[in-house]
Amino acid sequence: SSSPSSEQTFKIQNWLNEKSVRGIQERTDFESRATRNMYTTLLENEDSFVKEVDGYLHYKSMLDRRKKQLLHKKWSERVYFPVKEQIDQEMNGPNYKNLDKRKRTIYKHYLDYSNNKGVVFLDVMSPEEYDPLALNKNRPGPLKAITTKLDDCLISQGATRSEEDRIELGCITGERMPDKEIENIRKPPPPLVPLGRQGTECKTWLRMQLHDIDSDVRMRSGLRMKGTYNDTDIDFEE
């Protein structure tokens, strides 16, 4: 008689017949095909999404480059060429010829002055003999390119805003304010921070009492100081 273990093994072998194995393989193949279809669809969607993003970025880059080209073209037509035309006209006009003669004369005076003195330092000037700043004393200078108000496209938004504010302030005050006054009106009231120097210029520096060494506050503070701080017992004349 056969043992129970051999009978159990025989039953298992009968259970795992060809039909069962074929069914397992079919189910496995079906699951594999479903999984393959799923990630294939995902890969196709990802590939199409990447292509669309690349196409959009390429279009955006081309559009930005085109905008820069158009902006440069407008700026050249409205700003560069008018200014260049006035500069060329001034350089080719009679003023430049007179300036060139004056420069040559001043240079000759410099050579004569150097030959007479031997050595000429940059920080030593004798206006009665040789004045190196003769061309820069008077303003405006000998050459000046004058143009009408330029329609600069780089600051068109700021110019439009200034014009709108000018019209609004004109309706209130009855005066037509220049751009500088409009900019000052837009600024917040000083000081922005305690003892700040925002908007301080050379003309308004003296108004800052605590930072001006010649102000009344600093002078009174100096008078309160003792005069023996710099005294010493060393006799430097010995």
TrEMBL record:
Domain of life of the source: Eukaryota
Bilayer-spanning residue ranges: none
Query: What is the residue range of the signal peptide feature?
Result: none
**InterPro entries xref list:** FAM228 (IPR040046)
Q: Which family does it belong to?
A: Belongs to the FAM228 family.
Q: What is this protein called?
A: Protein FAM228B
